[in-house]
Amino acid sequence: MVFERFRQLVVSQENPSTLKHSLRTAVAAVVSLLVARLFRLPETYWAAISTLIVMQSNLGAALPVSAQRFIGTAVGACFGGFVGTYLPGNVAAFGVAVFAIGVVCAALKVERAAYRYATITLAVVMLVPRIANEWVVAMHRFFEVSIGIGVGLALSAVWPEQTSVPATKIDDPMPALHAEEG
């Protein structure tokens, strides 16, 4: 009984993983990693991680959240570069910066996703000890994430996820552009 209940919770009924999706994701992650290495960025894994996040949705769902991630990463990199330069590792300054980013995001009227990505970037730039100048770290982080987003979106556009629900009329919206596929 317990095993069957667990199996029902784990085995997907609506959106099972596919080999094609796994292949698309693997190709995109490797391409983003190679592009980041081509630019000799120090933490190329951020490009791959960003691509993995983008590839978990179809293009229509990934595009808006990717825009939020891009904006949030830019805001977090700016705050991280500035605050990290003058108050590196300072816990109180970190807390104030997290709050200030929230104020900026609210003023820009961006979604919470942008705030989430901004504060993650702030934490990575400001709290992870490194030898490099915080502005250099912030710009590297921004470029690594941007490469990952760009590669994920580009691959999603040229190799789109197939949907099981075709449009029935010429003016029907394309389900692949509007329905999230987990």
Secondary-structure class? mainly alpha
Mean pLDDT: 87
User: Which regions have little confidence, pLDDT < 50, spanning 5+ residues?
Assistant: 167-172, 174-182
Instruction: Report the helical percentage.
Output: over 70%
Main beta sheet: none
Order of helices and strands: HHHHHHHH
DSSP E strands, number:
0
Number of helices: 8
Which shape, going by the Cα principal axes? globular
Tell me the span between the first and last alpha carbons. 28 Å
Describe the structure.
The chain is mainly alpha-helical and 182 residues long. It has a domain at 22-53 and 70-160. Helices cover 71% and strands 0% of the residues. It has eight helices and no strands. It has helices at 2-10, 19-38, 45-54, 59-86, 91-108, 112-127, 134-158, 175-178. It is globular and about 55 Å long. Mean pLDDT is 87; it is low at 167-172 and 174-182.
Write the layout of secondary structure elements.
Layout: H1 2-10, H2 19-38, H3 45-54, H4 59-86, H5 91-108, H6 112-127, H7 134-158, H8 175-178
Give a nutshell description of this structure.
The chain has helices at residues 2-10, 19-38, 45-54, 59-86, 91-108, 112-127, 134-158, 175-178. The protein has 182 residues and is an all-alpha fold.
Which features does this protein show?
182 residues, 8 helices, 71% helix
